[in-house]
Each structure stands twice: as C-alpha cells, then as structure tokens.
Amino acid sequence: MIHFDNVTKVYANQNRPALDHVSVDVDKGEFVFLVGPSGSGKSTFLRLVLKEERPNSGAIHVAGKDLARLSNFKVPHLRRRIGCVFQDFRLLPNKNVYENVAFALEVIGKPRRFIRKVVPEVVELVGLEGKAHRMPDELSGGEQQRVAMARAFVNRPMILLADEPTGNIDPATSIGIMKVLDRINRTGTTVVMATHDAAIVDSMRKRVVELEDGKIVRDQSRGVYGQAY
Amino acid sequence: MRANFIFSEVWIGLRRNLTMTIAVIVTVAIGMALLGIGLMVNSQISGMKDYWADKVEVSVFLCKKNDPFPKCKGSGGVNEEEQTALRALIEGMPQVEQVEFEDAAKAYENFKVQYASNTVLLSAIQVDDMPESFRVKLKDPETYGAVIEQLEGAAGVSNVVNQKKLLENFFGLMEKIRGFALVIAGFLVIAATLLIGNTVRLSAYNRRRETGIMRLVGASNLYIQLPFVMEGVIAGLIGGVLAAVLLIVTKVFLFDGVQGYLGNSQLTWETVASVISLTMVFGVLICVLASFVTLRRYLRV
Ligand SMILES: Nc1ncnc2c1ncn2[C@@H]1O[C@H](COP(=O)(O)OP(=O)(O)OP(=O)(O)O)[C@@H](O)[C@H]1O
Ligand SMILES: [Mg+2]
C-alpha cells in the first residue's frame, strides 16, 4: 500500500537530510506506529506519502502509483484516497460538526444526497452522535479530534495518516481516540500514526517503525515504544 | 461541480474584502469607460473621415466691392474677365476634378442654414455681405499645395480656404483626445491588475484554513481556485456594467451633443454596443488573468 525505496529527503537550505535512505513497506490493512525523537523525520514521511513534498532520491509508491510519475493534476485524486489527522485538529471554526465533515465531501463535488446519508453514519462511528450541531469551540479537544477523524474517514480512504493525533489530548481521552482509529483500521483502512505517546504504542501492540536522524533504526511487528525512553 | 457551494464561498469572499472589492470595481469601471471612449472617438474619427473624404473642397473667395482683404485693395471687386479667366485657370489644372461657382445668394442660403439659431448674427448680415466663391473639388485632396499656391496669387481672389486643413486640425484634436483616453485607460488597467492581485492575496490569506483543508481532502485545483477567480469575475462584471452606463451617458450627452458640428457621421448604437461588449470582455479577462497569476503565487496546490 505504501512502499518507500531508498528515499532521501533534504529540505532546501538544510544540509542534514530529514529522511536518509529510507526503505519501508506498509501492507494493505496494516496499523503502523511511526516513533522517534523530535526532528527524526516522522512528519516528513507522512508529507511524502501525500506528495506534499518530493523526495530528492528514491522511489515512493502509494496505492500502486509511482508518485514521481503522478502528474500534479492527479495529486488531488491521490489525496482523496488518503485521510489525514493532525495534532491541531484543523477544523473550520465557523462550521458545526456536521458541516465540517460534509465540507470534505462538498469540495470534491459529491452529491448532496450522498453527503446527507454518509455524514451522520461517520459522525456516529467516531462517537459523536447527538453532537452534530455543536460548533468546534463547544467541544473538548478529544471531541474535536473525533470530528477531524470523521472528516478524514468520511470518504472511505484506503490509507489514514495520523500525525500525533493524541498530542494535545490527555491520556484518558487518548484511549478513546485510539479506539476510533482501531475501529477505522478494522474496516480495512491502512493506518500510519506518528506519535511520541509511549503508553499508547505499548498498549496497542502493533507494528512499530522507529526513526532517528532520518534513518530507520527499528522495524518491529507487535512492538513497543522503545527501551531508551 | 456544486454551484451553490462555489457561490456561497464567492459571496463570503466578496463581503469580507468589501473595501478592496469596491476599489477594484471603481478602477475597472473607469478604466473600461475610458477605453470605451477611446474606441468610440476612434470610430467617430474614421466615420467622419469617410464622410468628408469626397466632400472636402478648396474654397476660392472672390473680391467684393470695398473688400477689406489686402489683395483686393483698390479694385472695385472682381470683374467678368477676371472671373472667366479664373474659372479657365482652375479647370485647366490637372489636379482638379470639379469646380462650382457659388454666388452671394446661395452663400447666404447656406449661411442661414448653418447659423439658423443665431438671430443676432443673421439680422446683421445681408446678402450683399456674402462673398462669391469657386468651390473646387480635387481628385486627390492631398494635392492641395500647388493648387492653393497658384490660386492665391491670381487676380480677383481675396483668399483661399482649404477645408482639408481645417478638418485636419480638428482630427488632430480628436486623435489627441483618443490617445489621452487610451493612455489613462492603460494606467487604470495596470492599477486594476495590481488591486485585483492584492484582493486575491488577502482573500487567499483569509481563507487559508479552508484552502488548506481542501487541498488535504483532495479538492481539485479548479475547485480550490474557482471561488477566487469568480470573485475577480464578478468584480470585473460589475465594473463593466458601470462602465457601460458611463459610455451610454457619454454617447447621449457628449457625442450626440456635438453631432451638429461634426457633419453627418452619427455614432450609432451598434457601435456603442460593440464597444461596450468589447470593454466588458476585456475587463473580465483582466480580472481572470490577474486572479490566476496571483493565485499561482499565493495558493500552493
Ligand atoms: N519545511 C521544512 N523546511 C526545512 N526543514 C524542515 C521542514 N520541515 C521539517 N524540516 C526539518 O526536517 C527534519 C525532520 O522534521 P520532521 O518534521 O519530519 O520531524 P518530526 O519527526 O515530525 O518531528 P516532531 O516529532 O517534532 O514532529 C527536522 O530537522 C526539521 O527541522
Ligand atoms: Mg512532526
């Protein structure tokens, strides 16, 4: 599903590579934790999958497509098959829960009937039934992240990328977030989650890929966060 | 494509940047109106040139009794022989196509028509005050030089008036007005482009959250950019409509007002309509181009 072959990424005006000859394979339906210290290249990895950044060398395949040969014109179609969740939720403050989720479908031109049908289903899936008409500032951080997950998942992506989704949320609430991610993963969606949260990684017992200075230093199925921390 | 989604976005964008939008509309309106006036003057000039092309003549005025012109001093006005000799001279010139004699009575008729509204002048002038003249039409109006030179020296001639020269002065003035209008229009087009660029940049900044999410969920470039471009198009269209109103007012009050002095070359409504549609298309095109160019810089896709 995601295939990195010897990928190196050096940002402009930087001499140290953010990713250094990284090769990794993520299969369909897998759940992968991306761990490592700050600046190790986790977010860079996710941005490369989205083709928000281009690698300096190496090849990236996502959902069978060679990103180097994917024209700019087709990038939006790639992104429709990938959902994204971030630490800072990125909700639209002037739209309520329902509208925030529906926005993702409106802007890719889905018909209104379809939107009216699927949005409530997804809002329920993330556990926000009854709160569809709340505005983002009337929700807790955990609830806002659920909205973001609903928006990321509403178009049934093949891949869900989560960049520190529990970074702004207390441990107890994080467990609920992880349950939703697990539920999404069980529908067959591949999930890649970058995190610093050792407790979560240890409790989930999923595959762990550890980066350090842009290099993969560990790739372990059913792994833990790591001894060093 | 969900039209109502685009339109609500456009409406929000226009309202959020109201002052900038108004500035764009006013600049486009004045710029396009001046461009249109330039084009209208242009069509007026060529219409008048066509109208006058086969009508310009050289008027050879003859001495009257007690004529104040220095060349006529002492002579008791033109006599029979001089008049026949003059006609023979004119008809003998290779450049001349046709020559007509206008006597005092006919000149007075023409004068009365031309100054019909000026009763004071009309009551002061008598038939006898009007000079007689030969009206000379040239094969090629450009060749007046030699003709005039010869005729000015001839006996019995008080003075020679070349209509072409008078018209050329007038056309020169019209062409200056046209040039002025077009130059100012050019400056305003530049101003409009910069203003639109600024508006789009503000708009892109105001909506960076939305556009960021749109990019993330895979909205196509068209979908992301269309609201911005539509903002430009709508501002351009409103500016164009205002310009059209200005142009119609200009035609009715300015062009039709001076029509009497310009000869029979009406600025038709068809011309005005085509000028208006041209300026509209041009105005909207400027807005679209300016929006696109700015978007490419400020809205990474
Ligand atoms: N847009 C950018 N321009 C230049 N350098 C960048 C850019 N983004 C990231 N970097 C650099 O690339 C390296 C990796 O950054 P990245 O954001 O991938 O780390 P990370 O593992 O996500 O860190 P964190 O855990 O703090 O989010 C860092 O050294 C960072 O300074
Ligand atoms: Mg990061």
TrEMBL record, chain A:
Pfam families: ABC_tran. Keywords: ATP-binding, Cell cycle, Cell division, Cell membrane, Membrane, Nucleotide-binding. It is found in: Cell membrane. Residues 2-228 form the ABC transporter domain. The keyword Disulfide bond does not apply. It is a peripheral membrane protein. GO terms for cellular component: plasma membrane. One of its GO terms (molecular function) is ATP binding. PROSITE patterns: ABC_TRANSPORTER_1, ABC_TRANSPORTER_2. GO terms for biological process: cell division. InterPro entries: AAA+_ATPase, ABC_transporter-like_ATP-bd, ABC_transporter-like_CS, ABC_transpr_LolD-like, Cell_div_FtsE, P-loop_NTPase. Belongs to the ABC transporter superfamily. NCBIfam families: FtsE. Part of the ABC transporter FtsEX involved in cellular division. Has ATPase activity. Homodimer. Forms a membrane-associated complex with FtsX. This is Cell division ATP-binding protein FtsE. It comes from Planomonospora venezuelensis. The gene is ftsE.
